[in-house]
Amino acid sequence: MTIKPLLDRVVVKTEKAEETTKGGIVLTASSQEKPQFATVVAVGPGGVVDGKEVKMYVNVGDKVITSKYSGTEVKLDDEEYNIVRQEDILAIVE
């Protein structure tokens, strides 16, 4: 099964949260910071959103930084994804 985003939506797979600090302290799941780095898995076609033409600037495979608590988390085939609007992507990492 695949996810095909609509309009200005982007499906990303977030990186795993750090389980230990640089000093070697093991963090519990509740104290781990939510990761902001992700890889783009699928991109919507863009189009007219709220009366404005939206051009998509990200491509499948891009490494991106997303807003910390943006999007909707989805679990599909034992994989976790996040569906965000393109405006919630802050930067492309090169």
Broad shape: globular
What is the string of helix and strand elements?
Answer: EEEEEEEE
Question: Unreliable segments (pLDDT under 50, ≥5 consecutive)?
Answer: none
Terminal CA distance reads 30 Å
How many helices? The count is 0
Overall radius of gyration: 15 Å
Which class best fits the helix and strand makeup? Answer: mainly beta
E-strand count: 8
Descriptive keywords:
94 residues; mainly beta; six-stranded antiparallel β-sheet; two-stranded antiparallel sheet; 43% strand; globular
How would you explain this protein's 3D organization?
With 94 residues, the protein is mostly beta strands. The protein has no helices and 8 strands. It has strands at residues 9-14, 37-43, 47-49, 52-54, 63-66, 72-76, 79-85, 89-93. The strands form 2 sheets. It has a 6-stranded antiparallel beta sheet, with no helix packed on it. It has a two-stranded antiparallel ribbon with strand order 3-4. The chain starts with 8 loop residues before the first strand and ends with a strand.
Topology overview:
Blueprint: E1 9-14, E2 37-43, E3 47-49, E4 52-54, E5 63-66, E6 72-76, E7 79-85, E8 89-93
